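Incident log, structure service

09:12 report received: a user says their structure output differs between two submissions of the same chain.
09:20 pulled the input from the user's history:
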Amino acid sequence: MMGKKIEEEERILVCLSASPSNVKVISAAAKMAEAFDALLTAIYVKPTNYDELSAIDKQRLQSNMKYAERAGASVITIVGNDVPVQIAEYAHISGANKIVVGRSGAHRQHFWSKAPLTELIILNAPDVDVYIIPDSSVELKNHRIKISIKDQIKLTKRDSIIALLLLIAATVVGFTFMFFGFSEANIITVFILGVLLIAVATVSPFYSVVSSLASVLLFNYFFIDPKYSFHTYETEYAVTFMIMLVSSLVTGSLANKLKANARQSSREAFRAKVLFDTNQLLQKAEQTDDVIRITTQQIITLLDCDVAVYTPKDKKTGHSTKMNAVYYGKNTSDHDDNESEIAEWVFDNHMAAGANTDKYSRARALYYPIFINRYCYGVIGIYLNGERLEGFEYSVFESILGECALALEGLRYAAEKEEAALAVRNEQLRSNLLRSISHDIRTPLTSISGNASNLLSRYEQLDNETLKQIFSDIYNDAEWLRGLVENLLSISRIENGQMDLHLSPDVVNDVIEEALKHIDRKSEHHNISFVPCNDILIARMDARLITQVLINLINNAINNTQVGSNIRVISEKGDECVRVCVIDDGPGIPDDIKPHIFEMFYTRKGKVSDGRRGVGLGLALCKSIVEAHGGVINLTDNEPSGCCFTFTLPLGEVTINE
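09:34 re-ran on a clean worker, output below:
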């Protein structure tokens, strides 16, 4: 069975220009793309003399580009002067099978005159369907020629001196050649070389034209008989002068075109580098402020203008309300916040406004929204001093804004993901907390309830020893519940960021002795000792919280070691810190458990980790409190057996006021 042939995707290429009727051409191409369900690409071939176009032409071209984008086309700009060849070549490379172009009202008047653009495109792309839309632009062409001739005559003192010196140098070299008997052809070559150097060294093409005429006159005046006059005895020299003039003009013209191409290529390379650098720098940005700073720096580099950035004060709402304005550039002090209303309108409507636009056209700056996927992150205003962005600059600027929006979108998603993960973690912590407490709190409550019931029903029948044991059990269970509540309250304050440290210089040994007074009553079954430092140790700490840390560590040792074990508390001075160690000679902790020992709610195989029923809060609370003081806590093995919990506190100083 023969397989069904898959049809190739239609691609339509529409040509952009500064013609007033180019909108008609774009509209026709958009309708054609919709009818054929084809991809639409708009191409503009940017000439090397683009800067010589009038401001009206540039504005109209930019407007046509925006219209093409709104019509669903992707806009491509390439640089060159051979428009039909480059359009045909791009059509072949991109796989376009239809070209839509406007037809000029100008006709080919002579067989030697240049063929119209449409004919040249058809000749260069015979395998592509070319659709011609009437597009009269005779008036526009005449206007361009008029403006171009006017703009080309730009006299500067520097270029005038360079042209004069090079003509003098060519004349001196000509005299040298004549002195050594060189032929006139060599002298002509010297003057043509001088014209070439002038065309390369000066900016305006006017100098190459004038120097071409001057070189002919100088050659005639100094080197053709009769010398020092503009007459000549030989009629053949008229042909020589004409060839020399044409050669000089052609040479100068080629040099000017090469310079224009080089300047244009440099500008395009610079703009492409700015866009590439923007992408690379934004990929490394980790904060919103970094993204905004990089974006503004790159825009200033690209456009050499001042930039204003407006961001909403309340980033969680979808409206501007009030906006913060930050100015970047050379003249930031000259700007004020009078145009914040324009920025708010741009933020809410996701549309550009300001100078040279239909909305707020009298504004000093041109404002663009930084938005993507219907979410606006802010507004950027550029101060162009009344000038307009050209087509390629606008494309690069818009790409930078797009890169900025993508970077901000990535940071927002990352922050939302982190918040969601934190919410899940907190929810898991709450679930673990409820599960642990509901399980472990039942035993002491049952014990308290049972003992109280025995006292109520059988008090007179119980002897003193039994009563003492019941009271002791009730007290121990109540103390365990109180310690649990204290730990829960502390953990809650730490998780909510509400733990306030009241730091002051305190004597470490006094705090340790105070903690030993409040440890578990089961301590009487263990050998607990305190080995103080010989020096008086002063640490900067919150004594109440550090006391809680010591109680948790000592109780943890009491409840996890055998009866009769030795527990030591040691204080010593370290490098710019105080070290406190709680050491026992119990069974110790396996190596696979040690990395998790300070995790909240972590218990191993139902055994106690921080209190006698193993809720898993005490050691996590100790770690949080010690780190809040700027210290560290760690667990090491005690030789030959047991554990050593060590934490550090910053040294403190006591100021004595005499």
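09:41 both user submissions now match this output. Likely a transient worker issue. Closing.
09:42 reviewer note: Residues 285-416 form a domain with the Beta-Lactamase fold (CATH 3.30.450.40). Confidence is low (pLDDT under 50) at residues 1-7, 136-148, 605-613.
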